[in-house]
Design brief:
The protein has a three-stranded antiparallel β-sheet with strand order 1-2-3, with helices on one face. The longest helix is centred in the last third of the chain and has 21 residues, at about 35-55. The protein is built from one helix and three strands, in the order βββα. It is α+β, with helices and mostly antiparallel strands.
């Protein structure tokens, strides 16, 4: 799966990882372990694509 809407990065202040969507800044990042974030990223990517497709302004 190609990820265009989400990013996976290390959290700058904690020993954790985070998934965030730069194109949708009103959605807070998901913070967790790297394994949890990889799983959450798939869902976040799918939902972001669906939201952007329906709310294309």
């Amino acid at each position: 799966m190609e990820f265009i809407h989400t990013e996976l990065k290390r959290h700058p202040l904690r020993e954790a990882w985070m998934v965030f969507t730069p194109k949708l800044p009103f959605i807070p990042p998901y913070i967790g372990t790297k394994k949890e974030c990889k799983k959450a990223r798939v869902s976040a990517e799918r939902n972001a694509a669906k939201y952007l497709a329906t709310n294309n302004s």
